[in-house]
């Protein structure tokens, strides 16, 4: 069965960077795009970007351009999302979410359990 | 980017009753509309894609309809496990965007 297991909660100071991992199992890692979605406390969902695990190609939401980097390590079926120059309003749960289709659809059929990132001085 | 607006923000329904949730797009998204369910402390779960196709394992009491700018998620007979927040999401235009959510609570 498809599983996405994310790294644990992080507490960071403003201006720092955070790197969240997402280990995939139960399917061919390079066969499906991986997306990252975040959710601030008590708020809705916000798409951040995606990575093609096969090629490493990425697309980011305009809002995060220049601050976010998505990478992958195919040898261990793991995707990463790094967010730099953190601000207090980056406090959120960050999810990895696998695309539903082999052809990218930008619908999210499987989700990680989420990683809480708290930004506080 | 396309703005998705959901209504109502909160819907109070008794178990066994029908729930109707609405989602409106700021411009046409064709049928490229998905619905997700999220329970407290959990990740979202895909319910519907293509406006009306149920995802794998989703009960038949969940149905989606609409196209263009107006969409509806209907839960025909609410079960206790259906009380949650529901989000719509368009994937027709870049970037994909979500609505603000509708909370379905017990009346």
Please, could you describe this protein's structure?
The complex is a heterodimer of chains A (121) and B (107). Chain A is mainly beta. Chain A is built from no helices and eleven strands. Chain A has strands spanning 3-6, 10-12, 18-25, 34-39, 45-51, 58-60, 68-73, 78-83, 92-99, 108-111, 115-119. In chain A, strands 2, 4, 5, 6, 9, 10 and 11 form a seven-stranded mixed beta sheet that branches. A four-stranded antiparallel beta sheet of chain A has the order 1-3-8-7, with no helix packed on it. In chain A, strand 9 (92-99) and strand 10 form a beta hairpin. Chain A is globular and about 40 Å long. The mean pLDDT of chain A is 96. Chain B is mainly β and 107 residues long. Helices cover 0% and strands 50% of the residues of chain B. Chain B is built from no helices and eleven strands. In chain B, strands 2, 4, 5, 6, 9, 10 and 11 form a seven-stranded mixed beta sheet that branches. Chain B is globular, with a radius of gyration of 13 Å.
What series of H and E elements makes up the topology of chain B? EEEEEEEEEEE
Sheet with the most strands, sense and barrel status of chain A:
7 strands, mixed
Strand content of chain A: over 45%
* Shape annotation of chain A: globular
- Largest Cβ-defined interface: A-B, 19 and 20 residues
Radius of gyration of chain A: 13 Å
Distance between the termini of chain B: 35 Å
**CA distance, first residue to last residue of chain A:** 40 Å
Q: Biggest β-sheet of chain B, characterized? A: 7 strands, mixed
Assembly classification: heterodimer
* Helix share, percent of chain B: under 10%
| Mean pLDDT reading of chain A | 96
What are the segments of chain A in which pLDDT stays under 50 over at least 5 consecutive residues?
Answer: none
By secondary-structure content and strand pairing, the structural class of chain A works out as mainly beta
Class of secondary structure makeup of chain B: mainly beta
Mean pLDDT of chain B, nearest integer? 97
How are helices and strands ordered from N to C of chain A?
EEEEEEEEEEE
Shape of chain B: globular
Q: Let me know the number of strands of chain B.
A: 11
The low-pLDDT segments of chain B are none
Strand percent estimate of chain B? over 45%
């Amino acid at each position: 069965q498809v599983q996405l297991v994310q790294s644990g909660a992080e507490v960071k100071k403003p201006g720092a960077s955070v790197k969240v991992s997402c280990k995939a199992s139960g399917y061919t890692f390079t066969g499906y795009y991986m997306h990252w979605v975040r959710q601030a406390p008590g708020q809705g969902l916000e798409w951040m970007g995606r990575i093609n695990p096969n090629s490493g190609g990425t697309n980011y939401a305009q809002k995060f351009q220049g601050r976010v980097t998505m990478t992958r390590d195919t040898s261990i079926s793991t995707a990463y999302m790094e967010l730099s120059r953190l601000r207090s309003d980056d406090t959120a749960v960050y999810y990895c979410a696998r695309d539903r289709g082999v052809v990218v659809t930008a619908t999210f059929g499987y989700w990680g359990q989420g990683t809480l990132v708290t930004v506080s001085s | 980017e396309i703005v998705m607006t959901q209504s109502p923000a909160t819907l109070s329904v008794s178990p066994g009753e029908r729930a109707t949730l609405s989602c409106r797009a700021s411009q046409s998204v064709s049928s490229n509309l998905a619905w997700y369910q999220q329970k407290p402390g959990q990740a979202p779960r895909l319910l519907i894609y293509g406006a009306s196709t149920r995802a794998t394992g989703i009960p038949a009491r969940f149905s989606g309809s609409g196209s263009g700018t107006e969409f509806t998620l209907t839960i025909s007979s609410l079960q206790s496990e259906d009380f949650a927040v529901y989000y719509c999401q368009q994937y027709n235009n870049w970037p994909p965007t979500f609505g603000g959510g509708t909370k379905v609570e017990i009346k």
